[in-house]
Amino acid sequence: TYSGEMVYRSGRGLSMAFTPNHSLPVASGDGFKLLPFCDLPGQVNIKRTAKFYGEALDKFSPPVIQTRRRRLVQPESITGRQYAELMGWFLSEGSTVDRDKAFSIAQMKPAGRDAIKRLLDECGFVQSWSESQVVVYAPDWWAYLRRFGKCRDKFVPDAIKLSSEKDIRAFVRAAVAGDGHMTDDDSGHYYTTSQRLADDMSELLVKLGYSVSVSSRNRAGRIGASYDVSFSH
Q1: I need a surface site. Which of 117, 150, 182, 208 has the fewest CB within 10 A?
Q2: Gap between the Cα atoms of 49 and 212, Å rounded
């Protein structure tokens, strides 16, 4: 745990807080170099995006849990891309139903419902739809997904943050479709009440080459802050 002086800098949608000896990516020719803040000259250009090369997920299988006789046969594994997209929808619009050992994804927009159904069909999930959500009764998936917490505690699994650009992009597109919006010029916003999820989303967007800024505000009638992750090329 650090205790001491902090440096705060902001401007043009960029807000940073770091220790005096923290290394920053400084633009240098066509690339960048890392330099401690205390060694920087009076004015420099901080590189705000970076190319990330992760390792694609082959497939994902949730741990098998002990439970009573299962009513439905649900998929034991799905591809890495399917997992990334499912997590995007779940972290934005999903919840777990402990009584039924199920997970649900809320969605009323026709385009969103079509996208979720396509994904679940592709994965092989048996589904139960209502006017406002889809419920999937699957004990192993319920047990895995419930570890990602309630609204203010949600976070992105490391497997996705370290994955390939293709998998990360599948996650981001689903997450933004669930709880945000993207404009035609490939910029947009993502909204969440989880600071950790806002930080994780910012990391993923930077890895995709976006410039990112995060703002927060306390909304009337709600306890705690809401976060707006703004991104653009």
Answers
A1: 150
A2: 8
Say what the pLDDT of residue 121 is: 98
pLDDT in tens, 118-146: 999 999 999 999 999 999 999 999 999 99
Phi, psi of 109 (to 5 degrees): -70, 130
* SS3 state at 206: helix
Average pLDDT in the chain: 89
Show the tokens assigned to 145. 């997904």
3-state secondary structure of 172: helix
d(CA 69, CA 1): 47
Residue 204 CB partners (closer than 8 Å, separation 6+): 156, 160, 161, 168, 171, 172
Average pLDDT of the segment spanning 75-80: 97
Token pair, residue 104, equals: 């649900």
Helix (H) or strand (E) holding 26, with range, is: strand 23-28
Please name the amino acid found at residue 170: A
Give the pLDDT confidence score for residue 82 in this predicted structure: 98
Per-residue DSSP letter, 46? B
**Which tokens in the block code for residue 2?**
């650090």
pTM (2 decimals)?
0.82
Rounded CA separation 55/120 (Å): 24
